[in-house]
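Quick one:
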Amino acid sequence: MKVKTSVTLSPDVLEAIDRRCPEGRSRSEFLEQAAWDVIRRADRVESDAREIEILNAIADGKFGEPPDSYLYGVPPESLGSDFFDEDFAVATR
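Output:
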């Protein structure tokens, strides 16, 4: 169910919406999609912040001793530019 509402926009914003709105799509659909995009982005930022907080707490030992697996990692740049450039390109395809 949709709820009808009124929004006041500047002429410049309305003109930009009209330029970007695909053929056959209403301004309402365009604005609803834009609002959902902003909401999802904000949700993702909040989720990322919670995850960082949890990871930092783990690393600080707030949940017992942190795992030591990070001690065994090797920074890719320390492996040399030939290894890093070629293997990174393959690994990210």
